[in-house]
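Collaborator request, handled under Task 6.
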Amino acid sequence: MTVEWILVAGYAIALFMINIFSLGQFHLTLHYLKHKRPEEDGSDDSSEDKELPHVTVQLPVYNELYVIDRLIEAVASFDYPIDKLDIQVLDDSTDETVERIAKKVNEISKKGISIEHVRRPERVGFKAGALKYGTEMAKGNLIAIFDADFIPEKDFLRKTIPYFNNEEIGLVQTRWGHLNKDYSLITQMQAFGLDAHFTVEQEGRNVAGSFMNFNGTAGVWRKQCIKEAGGWQSDTLTEDLDLSYRAQLKGWKFRYLEDVVSPAELPILMPAVKSQQYRWNKGAAETARKNIKNVLTADLSFKKKMHAFFHLLNSSVFFFLLMAATLSIPMLYIKEANPSMGLIFDLGSIFIIGFLAMASFYWASSKKIMPDKTFKYYITRFPLFLTFSMGLAFHNAIAVLEGYLGFKSPFIRTPKFNVINSGDKWEGNKYIIPKITFSTFLEGLFCIYFIFGIVSGFRLGDFGLIFFHLMLAVGFGSVFILSIKPTQTA
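Structure tokens returned to the collaborator:
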């Protein structure tokens, strides 16, 4: 009986925590839906060119053979005074990308554009190290940053720089667009999830006055803000989130521009998606471990502290999801053997509150992204997205635990493909090799485990979790199958 009660308690805690995180997202949804931006905010874009500040554009890259040309060409085409713009290609590459960048930089420089091919002596600190190295020699008071998978619009600086007329603004972040959103089901699911973050979550946090984060790219920093916050640091895998919190704890304000879209390429292979997810979730846990005490002891309102607390711990939801999913099958048998616990299990239906909260979160996002076809878009994406997320629960939960426990790992880049349309090919990409990890094997076992849960539900005549177990089985099975395709080398 003691073991049974421990399992029941664990299951209840997992469901409770999932609901808490879901209600936090619902609170952001309410802010997003109710709030209207003020017209001021220092966003006047009527400044004469002679009054515009000097801007340095930083392009941190590492082995980006397939996409580096289009990135450099895009930023070199910015509609901004040429005498107030300089570009740093912060190149840590170890392959032919070095020669390709040198050639493109030489080509662009002949047009009179200030562009520099920056090769630091040693690759210390990965992306954070490259940004730190570049910032120390940056000419601009403002620094725009783009990862290799982005193709910013020509008017990006014209739309973002005016917000720095407000001297309190330390960062302006724009929304990510998706160049290959409809390439495959994988890219559609990623776009659905990212769109919710870049509409409801980021805008909701910003308008609520809560801490938000720089997303590592497609944003502009005030150099003074970076320096006062302690500069770029490489002790987490999410140097962007870490610097964001240190800056806001120093009193700097951030501005999010939901309607300024910066197009980027989504990963098209499951291993690339998992690489990105691993870095984001582990890095978020590392950042929470580093900064959460400072947040809780800072001179902030209780509301702002709670938003920041759950923001930093948000990746933990994958751990609790995996915990609830794994324990849900033993719950079927414990409930069957102990009818007296029926009331306790009935209380588990409170999980529906969290589900409805998350459903509203993604509905609000869908309404923004697809205003003319919201219902069709939502009903065909939301269930699949949940299934997709469930299938990644084990992979992401491991990343989160490693982050909290302090296990260090290198910054693993997400491979880029320069694949936009459905007919584009990625075969022959030199950054991809076949590889099956032990965790992939375990994901296959999880699929079998949840199929057993479906069978158990029918055998016991308890159908309450059938749909949940079906989504888990399909999610883990899909991730397993898609993961045994070629994966990245570095």
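The cover message to the collaborator said: "The domain at 53-268 is CATH 3.90.550.10 (Spore Coat Polysaccharide Biosynthesis Protein SpsA; Chain A). The longest helix spans residues 2-34. Please let us know whether this matches your experimental observations."
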